[in-house]
Design brief:
- This protein has 298 residues and is mainly alpha-helical.
- It folds into 2 domains: 102 residues; 184 residues, Orthogonal Bundle (hpI Integrase, Chain A), CATH 1.10.443.10.
- Helix content is 51%, strand content 10%.
- It is built from 12 helices and 5 strands.
- The strands form 2 sheets. The chain has a 3-stranded antiparallel sheet. Strands 4-5 form a two-stranded antiparallel ribbon.
- Helix 6 packs antiparallel against helix 7.
- The longest helix is centred in the first third of the chain and has 22 residues.
- The relative contact order is 0.12.
């Protein structure tokens, strides 16, 4: 079990970050500016680790690092997110040795600007958009709307009897009030989570099941696709184009995650407290802290 020094949270985190950087300053990192930036980044990570994971900075596992980066992707822009990823990578390569030196942490895309700017879609608006898409992308839009998926997660859909979700805290009330078939998707940093797709959509999805999974590359990342449906950048472009043609505006496919969060919160608050509903929805969406889901409720 991790041991924590006395003092306020920030002071403790600052000391942990400084101790890490002392190990690699000069020998690994020559730039004083880089050392300063990495130390500041690691201090933020250390505060998160103590508050949310009850561990010290050096105790972080690779999976926990990806948890942190996934959470931060909603809170900060790409530049800050990349800096924190690089600082963690340096620590894991040269101090904790939890990441082989020939491996790098996967680049996580920031959702911050999208989350601030996106607006949700109504069911009627989604229906109009799907009517303006081809069958392949239309089905993906319906699934993303019904399950709150990111664009790249559409490529990673797999039956739950073929791939289990990563162990994570889960409330019994997940998917309460909605019936469907359970699948898994690969989220940010390779984290596998459980999602639910309504029965009619599941039937249509299984009709498009590939005889053999195929490899596909989207935004320089490789995926193994099991269904002949749209996903990633191609689907995002199709969605935005269809939205602009039918509605004269587009919030992008990411707006469907806002729709999912807002609709699920409305459903669940009729049978449970808001705080409890927020925790349920955060688990369904693959967020690691309920506060992150708040961004989607604006």
């Amino acid at each position: 079990m991790a041991k924590f020094a006395t003092g306020d949270l920030k002071s403790i985190a600052d000391r942990q970050a400084a101790n890490i950087m002392m190990r690699i300053q000069g020998s690994i990192l020559k730039s004083v500016g880089t050392v300063r930036n990495y130390e500041s980044s690691l201090s933020k990570v250390a505060q998160y680790a103590k508050t949310n994971l009850n561990c010290g900075l050096k105790d972080l596992t690779t999976k926990q690092v990806y948890q942190y980066l996934a959470d931060r992707s909603v809170e900060v822009g790409q530049k800050t997110l990349d800096m924190e990823r690089q600082a963690l990578q340096a620590m894991m390569h040269h101090v904790t040795h939890t990441l082989p030196k020939n491996n790098n942490l996967t680049v996580i895309k920031s959702e911050h600007t999208q989350s601030l700017n996106s607006r949700s879609y109504t069911t009627e608006q989604v229906n109009l958009i799907t009517q303006a898409q081809n069958d392949k992308n239309s089905l993906s839009t319906e699934i993303a709307y019904a399950a709150g998926l990111r664009a790249h997660e559409l490529y990673t859909l797999q039956r739950i009897d073929e791939r289990q979700a990563d162990p994570r805290p889960a409330l019994n009330e997940k998917f309460t009030g909605r019936d469907g078939v359970r699948y898994t998707v690969e989220g940010k940093g390779g984290l596998i989570r459980e999602v639910q797709i309504p029965h009619p959509l599941s039937i249509r999805l299984e009709d498009r099941r590939l005889e053999q999974p195929q490899s596909i590359t989207d935004r320089s990342i490789h995926y193994c696709q099991h269904y002949d449906i749209g996903g990633g950048k191609n689907w995002s472009n199709s969605f935005s184009s269809a939205s602009n043609r039918t509605l004269n505006w587009s919030a992008g496919g990411h707006g469907l995650r806002h729709s999912y969060a807002q609709e699920r919160m409305n459903e669940l608050q009729s049978v449970m407290s808001r705080s409890h509903a927020l925790e349920v929805v955060s688990q369904e969406m693959g967020h690691f802290r309920p506060e992150i889901t708040e961004v989607y409720l604006r």
